[in-house]
Design goal:
alpha+beta; Immunoglobulin-like; 7-stranded mixed sheet; 11 helices; 26 strands; N,N-dimethylformamidase beta subunit-like C-terminal domain-containing protein; signal; DMFA2_C
Length: 505
């Protein structure tokens, strides 16, 4: 998270990128795109969702710190591949239960596998790498987990100690092929950026921001329950997407970084509620997919804000995330300034996230109502909203807005324009939709609590009406995006001049 303040930087950004900031949409409207027969991914997910769920996936008691915790040597695997778990526990023994997260009625997960009881052991204390304050472990592997027969999807492995304490280890069984499918992407780089296990994250160390990590490793457990970011910002979206019965594929953003063809033929990419940390390759591959007709939905806020790169750990490639948050501090500054790890919008090579997302991150924290600006927008069908309709508390934590002081794709259609006050400053949060020549549509909700509202979270800030609205809009977006390039049927209607009046820019 960060707070952006306008200044001379924006003038520099505009002069550097204005020539490419106003790309017109040359896609013409027409009939609905041809819909192919149900993809294999659709049949698989629909069949999977008919199976019985299991409420026991939820954690009852995490216990004292370090009572039980662990991590996997792989962030994702293909179906049938195995992976190793590294577990530390104070208990004499433990066992593991694997659950696939998805639409199983009210259960929202299905038990797919369980280990026998495994002897517990206390692993060595973590190591903090000097200079970069990276926390890593030198643990021995505890057991190997097979995934034979596991369908593609997002999984939670629940570690259960003999003392009754529990924690999660997340794993993704990724899709081999995304053609014809809506791709759900787990934002694992952001999970790891905020992970403070061992006393350090990319945000703080024992003394605060100054001694934060400059590198973070997947070779350590996640803090808290082991899956807090996933449960808040991703799990409700997965449940809602599977409920629709559309063709789905599953990846993490490590695959987006590693494979330039991972989105070839994909109908849409779903960026979840908090998807802040992107590498150059991630951004290039997502842009390439958009320009080839793949729709993108940014269902949160603050996406594509931090620039990162990857390094290997002893367990494999892409196991270390590098983010100095300072260009001049980054050793890459003297070698390749395009790869220094500060915010994407900052010098020495500013490339604001708005070029891809359409919206621009502004401030946190905030709690405000969501205000409809364009009730005739296609994603609002079936919601019954009018211009000025307010949805309680749906703008929360962090927000984005359309900001013409930075590069912004055109045409862009602002569909919600919500007054906010953040850190004493009045502004607006925007939901926006733009289309490009390939026909792809890009929709950004501009609020971090959107996915939270799809489930039962967000506390007292969001009421039932707001939840039902968010679910219907999400359904509309996913169904339209699943049919093909959305701009061929729903070209963006640029309304920036009307919405961004002189008093609200």
């Amino acid at each position: 998270m960060r707070v952006w303040r306008a200044g001379a930087l924006i003038i520099a950004l505009v002069s550097l990128t204005a020539a490419c900031a106003r790309t017109p949409n040359q896609t013409t409207g027409g009939g609905s795109p041809a819909v192919r027969p149900p993809a294999k991914g659709q049949a698989t997910v629909v069949a999977e969702n008919q199976r019985g769920g299991d409420q026991s996936w939820r954690i009852a008691d995490t216990g004292p710190e370090h009572a039980i915790e662990g991590y996997a040597d792989r962030v994702s695997v293909l179906p049938g591949e195995s992976f190793r778990l590294y577990v530390n526990t104070t208990a004499r023994s433990f066992h593991v239960v694997a659950y696939r997260v998805g639409y199983y009625g009210n259960a929202q997960a299905r038990r797919v596998w369980a280990s026998p009881e495994v002897p517990g052991r206390r692993q060595p204390a973590p190591v903090v790498v000097p200079g970069v304050n990276m926390v890593t472990t030198r643990w021995a592997p505890t057991l190997t987990v097979p995934t034979r027969g596991w369908p593609e999807g997002s999984y939670l492995l629940k570690l259960v100690s003999a003392a009754g304490y529990e924690r999660y280890v997340p794993i993704t069984v990724r899709s081999r092929d995304t053609r014809g499918k809506v791709v759900i992407m787990n934002a694992v780089t952001t999970w790891q950026a905020y992970n403070s296990w061992g006393g350090y994250s990319l945000y703080h160390g024992p003394k605060g921001f100054a001694d934060r990590s400059r590198k973070v490793s997947f070779d350590r457990p996640y803090d808290a329950t082991g899956a807090s970011k996933f449960l808040t910002y991703e799990q409700p979206l997965i449940v809602q997407a599977e409920k629709l019965g559309i063709p789905l594929a599953y990846i993490t953003n490590l695959e987006l970084a590693a494979d330039p063809h991972i989105l070839d033929g994909a109908r849409a990419l779903l960026s979840p509620g908090h998807d802040e940390y992107w590498s150059t390759a991630m951004r290039a591959h997502a842009t390439r997919a958009r320009d080839s007709g793949t729709n993108i939905a940014f269902l949160g806020a603050n996406a594509v804000n931090r620039h990162i790169r990857f390094e290997a750990s002893p367990l494999g490639a892409q196991r270390v995330i590098v983010c100095y948050k300072s260009a001049t501090e980054d050793p890459m500054y003297s070698r390749d300034r395009a790869e220094t790890t500060q915010d994407w919008r900052l010098p020495p090579n500013p490339r604001p996230e708005s070029v891809l997302t359409g919206v621009f991150y502004e401030c946190n924290p905030v709690h405000a109502d969501y205000v409809v600006a364009d009730p005739d927008a296609w994603m609002f069908r079936g919601t019954g909203v009018r211009r000025g309709t307010r949805l309680k508390g749906l703008v929360a934590i962090e927000y984005d807005r359309v900001n013409l002081d930075v590069p912004t794709p055109r045409p862009i259609q602002i569909v919600a324009h919500s007054p906010v006050t953040c850190q004493g400053r009045r502004s607006h949060a925007d939901s926006a939709y733009y289309t490009v020549r390939s026909g792809a549509g890009v929709f950004a909700v501009g609020t971090m609590d959107w996915v939270c509202a799809l489930g039962s979270g967000c506390g007292r800030y969001v009421d039932q009406r707001s939840r039902e609205f968010a679910r219907q809009v999400t359904r509309n977006v996913l169904e339209v995006f699943a049919a093909g390039p959305a701009g061929r049927v729903h070209p963006a209607r640029d309304n920036v001049a009307r919405i961004l009046s002189a008093g609200s820019r």
